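Quarterly update from the structural biology core.
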Amino acid sequence: MHYLTVPGYTGSGPDHWQTHLENTYAGFSRVIQDDWETVDRDRWVARLDETVRGIDGEVFLIGHSCGAVTVAQWAATHRDSRVVGALLVAPADVDAADTLPAISPQAPLPTVGLPLKTHLVLSDNDPYLSLERGLALAETWGSTVEIVPGGGHLATADGYGPWSHGAALIERHSGHVLEPTQGRAPLV
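Predicted structure, tokenized:
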């Protein structure tokens, strides 16, 4: 099993939970966008597709914020039976009238069921996605869902560096136990 993290707007820095997963467990890599500051829906989805196609064997996707949106957009328009599921954490509501101008080019969010198993992690106080909208997306996409009380955007600034619950979710939804890695240089 290969685990592919998909960061969002500005990327995931050295203290982000995605980076900690990459540095802690074997079998992880990251989608690398050409420009983390310029969200481009078509380019970001194409880069995810290119990265997935370059991986041998089964793949489990792990998206955060605009990265979760990228995963949903990819899943709505692409098919690859090797992708067994995805963890979508705090997707940004790029369709909202008050969304950040920098991420609005990623609109629209998919309005169809996603053809792979997805688990959506929401917070009841995310400034970039209301709980009501998040629950509606989970229903539309066919995702299982859980709510983290007071989790904010589930980002580094909200205290989500090392996140053991995230690792447990990946294990539960991928059906595989994560293997610790040792002696690996940190990814940033």
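The beta strands are 2-6, 28-30, 59-64, 83-89, 118-123, 144-148.
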